[in-house]
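Figure 2 data, in text form.
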Amino acid sequence: MIADRPRPHRPPRGRCHRNRSDDFGMSSWQVYILRCADDTLYTGITNRLPARMKTHNGARGAKYTRTRRPVVLAWSTPCKSRGAALSLEHAIKQLTRCQKQTSIAVAGATRKQMVRRLKAMAAGKM
């Protein structure tokens, strides 16, 4: 009978292996700014920055960076969650090119000061 056959093993439901960054010491979500070969800036988020950099510099990167290779990491910062990374990415994308370059130039400041400055610029306070 069909009902008597053993069922194949299935992994337990729950968190996907891609979401286990805390369990296996993988990097957390990060916001990054790339400087492209034509001196434009590209902002994105990832949870695996070295692999994402290889992808951007390879043939399978984002459409924007594909034709502007090589790209170089200009700035990055870790975030507590994907949502926090998306919020910060959105704030950075609201800045003008000049504001982004100023923020990258003062990247010697602590991470908190940099994030505060970016959020203030995005809110129009600077």
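Caption note: Residues 82-93 form the longest helix (12 residues).
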